[in-house]
Write a structure and sequence with these properties.
The protein is an alpha/beta fold. The protein is built from 13 helices and ten strands. Helix 11 packs across helix 12.
């Protein structure tokens, strides 16, 4: 945690910085460049929003909303951006919960914002295509704007049928997307857009062309260099469920629904009981939401929307603590995980 001096009149005050964005940027850019050095070309999948990451800003006080944009700019001319979107989401007119925009309109907005920031899109890849007319119309809209557009097809029984996946009928079938940058950032308007499938197809085809391409995934959370029950990773789980509730309640992503005084009171109570962490887990966040709902109509809307999360799906890459796992089960959320539970051998 860094310090910054603030001068007021003749007195100097020291204010703690909860998260040092500059230090974070230097470390991340250095690690990305290190990973790039292993390959001729690196496909770097970016999860979440590029232009403004409100989720990370809430979890990490001091995290700049445009941190990812700053990171991409520091990578310089060796970087280019490819946007993926699923044909199934175009056909279904899928809508983002925060912006209330369809995925195709969201991608057009993102392309415009990135261009204004000096980060033009190299190409758009439409994934999972199977002849949808609405997709062909959207492809024409993109091409009318001067964008390169490529088509990727569904692979039967993907990813289980490896014999098909690793063949000319699998990863070898899509149009190969020529790229010039040593770093190809792969982004999308939302989950399930086929970012990894695109990257794997490119790597498969480029390896056959003698280009030693590689893959990496950039995730803000969880942070693997610290313990899974570290306050930051706990706060990430809690913020995730709160974002889902706001989306279902029809509230914008950047609206605050928990009174800061309630949060301060709960943290103070935790300290009274000898707990040093200032992070709230899912159960504590829901308790704070309930307390805030007494005076705040938006918080009441979120409380009323909780029942709509039943039978929804949530995937985590690590083992959650009881303060996160139990309330999710009580809400009826189906939680899956990639984590491997260690089993004693003796």
């Amino acid at each position: 945690m860094a310090d910054v001096s603030i001068y007021s009149g003749c007195k100097a005050m020291t204010k703690k910085i909860g998260f040092d964005t500059e230090k974070y940027l230097k470390a991340q850019v250095a690690k990305i460049l290190e990973r790039v050095s292993y390959f001729d070309k690196l496909y770097l999948e970016f999860g979440g929003k590029l232009c403004s990451d409100n989720h990370a800003n809430r979890v990490l006080p001091g995290y700049a909303l445009d941190t990812k944009i700053q990171m991409l700019k520091r990578l310089g001319k060796q970087m280019e951006i490819v946007h993926c979107i699923s044909a199934k989401d175009i056909e279904a007119r899928k809508v983002r919960g925060d912006s209330r925009l369809t995925y195709e309109n969201q991608i057009l907005k993102d392309i415009g914002q990135l261009a204004e920031l000096g980060l033009p899109i190299s190409a758009v890849v439409i994934m999972h295509f199977s002849g949808e007319l609405s997709v062909l119309k959207f492809k024409q809209r993109l091409e009318n704007r001067g964008l390169r557009v490529f088509i990727d097809y569904e692979i039967e029984d993907y990813p289980k049928n490896l014999d098909t996946v690793l063949s000319d009928e699998g990863y070898g079938r899509p149009e190969w997307v020529p790229t010039e940058g040593k770093i190809v950032v792969v982004t999308a308007p939302g989950p399930g857009s086929g970012k990894m499938g695109f990257a794997m197809s490119q790597i498969y085809q480029e390896r056959r062309r003698g280009i030693a391409s590689g893959f990496a995934k950039f995730e803000t959370f969880p942070i693997w260099n610290i313990e899974l029950d570290h306050p930051i990773n706990i706060a990430y789980e809690a913020a995730t469920i709160l974002n889902a509730v706001k989306a279902v309640a029809g509230l914008p992503d950047d609206v605050h629904v928990i009174d800061p005084k309630v949060i301060d009171a709960m943290i103070g109570l935790k300290h009274t009981f000898g707990k040093s962490t200032a992070s709230l887990d899912v159960k504590e966040v829901l308790d704070a939401l309930a307390a805030s709902s007494v005076m705040d109509d938006r918080a009441r809307r979120c409380i009323g929307a909780l029942k709509q999360l039943r039978d929804s799906e949530m995937h985590t890459t690590h083992i959650m603590n009881s303060g996160d796992e139990l309330p999710l089960k009580q809400l009826g959320i189906n939680v899956t995980t990639d984590a491997r539970i260690p089993i004693p051998t003796s």
